[in-house]
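Appendix B. Extra example for self-study. Work through it before the problem class; the solution is given directly after the inputs so you can check yourself.
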Amino acid sequence: MSLGNAPNLDLIDNVEDADAELVQYLTFMMAEEEYGIEILSVQEIRGWEPMTQIPNTPEYVKGVINLRGTVVPVIDLRLRFQLPKIDYSDITVVVIVKVRIAGSEKIMGIVVDAVSDVYSLEQQAVSGAPHIGDVENKEFIEGLINVNDKMVVLLDLKKVLDI
Amino acid sequence: MSIDLSQFYEVFIEESFEGLDAMEAELLNLEPGDVDSEIINTIFRAAHSIKGGSGTFGFMAIADFTHVLETLLDQIRNGQRELESQHVDLLLKSVDCLRAMLVAIQNDEPQESELAVELKTQFQAILDGEQPTSPRIEESTEINDSSDTQSSSESQSVITIWQILFSPEPHLFKTGNEPLFLFEDLEDVGDITVRANLEKLPDLTHLSPEDSFIQWTITLETEGDVSEDKIKEVFEWVEDDAIIEISKKAQIEGLGDGIEEEAEPSTQQQTQLPTESPVEPETLDTAIIKDKPAGEAVKTTQVKSADKAEKPASTKSESGSIRVGTDKVDSLINMVGELVITQAMLNELGESDELDANKLAALREGLAQLSHNTRDLQESVMRIRMMPISFVFSRFPRLVRDISQKLDKQVELKLLGEQTELDKTVMEKISDPMVHLVRNSLDHGLETPDERAAAGKGKTGTVTLNAYHQGGNIVIEIIDDGRGLNTEKIKQKAIANGLIAETDDLSDDEINELIFQPGFSTADAVSDLSGRGVGMDVVKRNINALNGTVEVTSVPNVGSTFTIRLPLTLAILDGQLITVGKNVYIIPLVSIVESLQIDTRKVNTVGGGLEVLRLRDEYIPIMRLYDLFNHHDAQTELENGLLVVVESDNEKVGLLVDELLAQQQFVIKSLEANYKKVDGISGATILGDGSVSLIVDISGLIKLAGLKKAGKQGLDFDKPLSEAV
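Solution. Structure tokens for the complete assembly:
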């Protein structure tokens, strides 16, 4: 993963001027697609590790891990998005995120194929991201945005993790 | 210099709350007509401490208010006034009002409230109203040195001049006292002239700004009938830290009369003459008797102070602190000491380069000691959090009294098992749901005296609060002997609300359970007590949030019983580790009855594929844990597994597991904090190897099994087994 190699982004030419309006997004790969989540919600990035299964839960709930004394559930985003599942490998990562769901802060882990990049995007560009029409999983998608001619799907974590 | 008093506010407020709790409890013990002086004294002391404290901290609204209250109490204490039930009512209301005022201080809001003014007026009306027998008031007021009485018109024109020498010890400021406040208080008693005596003031090089060197001579002119105690009272909080001499200098009668100078206060003969009434032998006697205290006044005065040391050992349940006995703290410190020793010993072993057999033995011993220490420490810490449930129960006598008055019902409240201990956190959260249930019993459950008579019951209804331990739970029952739930009415209402269909065939108990549904109230009229239809569902939700359950049983015309079951503590659990395939679970030890190997000859399959094991005289349904939890790696043969017989809600079931591992204590971690409630799982914990293990929730599991079976075979698992077999 290459964190912070921002210069190739055309969106942040004038970092100085637009400083206040920039939002940083962490992106990761899943099934050849790049997804972005707001970096402020990311707590840490861990490798895949065996976890304790929770009985009678949907398949995308992989189980719980011990995060320094806190019991944290881990969600497989591929399964959550009904993408074909792949075997976990050395580069499979768990992104630990903190989200506010139904008035309480929850710490959860999401399994993704690999972490990709960190982009600084202009707030306007993000909020102006077009809502997409009738596609699968559209309720999880905050918007689409182009970064250097690549399409990044910005996720609404609150909805993704409201399970 | 001034000391920042605000740092003591919290202590003052907490102590005042405790005082109010004590007052309230004692007030409820008071029976009009039969006054126990000890009770009155306790109430008086509490009020007096609050008054003193609030005066010191400048909360004048509270001080003024408590003062009026105290005046009435004082008259009752001295037998000048008969205690009437309206007094008790008024005093109880003032307790509430004072609580509100204290809360206002906490929130930095103005303390004055309309209620206070109104209550004060009521007090004043009582005090000004029918005068107690007049010779008696004179006598007792003077002889008993009562702190004050209302100024009677006949003595209004008497002006008394007092001389007060106030000579504080150097450490006065360190005790948090400020002479200026005292003088301000004194100004309320009468006009004062203060002269400072600077004789003892050292020169600048020797001056310590934190000490007090000044003496004051105060000339106080009081108008009307002001007793010496009234003045002493002002100095009450500094009496240990200062020399205070109070003497009566002179008395001016009327406006034009001459001044009777008294050279020696101790020789004064007659200090006060009633101006209007003719001198009668009786009055003279009184006057002479009353000289005695004045004569003693030249000595350093010792005011019988409110017993500051004796504080009721009660804690407001909501407050953020708990009172812990020093013995408990001492034992904790001892244990920590031992822990440190053990740690030093282990450290030493760890530093040695090689580990021979001797050292290994020593290491093992050290580790054993460590685990012993840890367990002791844990138990002591947990014990600190355990408190008797009387802290919750104690608020109910008042509640029941108020509500029964409002509803015009006669109610007797019985409290049982008040010493049952439970965790403080649980206790704080259970009190509101309980209040709601008790209100409900009073409002809906109990009938009016007439209705009771018509139903052939005694006029006085009974509400019983009962608490006891059962297994790892505390059980709280709220029992009334009222009319019971109207099952038919609940059913109609539920149908009207669309909760159930008319065709549903429900047992009475199932219908009664419906009252815990949101938006459900059968009260015909909405009262301000209950009946708005918000409540029972909230009660249930709050109790469920504590991992507890609430149930209702009811018999028409005999009464209803609400049963709340709660875990004793939310933090630690004794558990048995078991495996199902590769998965490790924990079963709470308290719910395990026994574990055994299954003799397949004793297993029968009854209607719909339910397996039961005949164990002695009982039939135990077998629940295959791997099936309930959908694990596919477990072994499925009954004879290869083990059966853990568990009990929940008086129902026994056997759980089929692969293996039993160790028994140990676990720190409960919430699964809901980051995820959500999972059926059949009550929480999680972290094992020694750092992995997470889930704790099985037995009653949830039984429900889960019922659902699964019902879903699979349409069998009603909840039916008593006797029917099924």
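Self-check: Residues 357-385 of chain B form the longest helix (29 residues). If your reasoning did not lead you there, revisit section 3.
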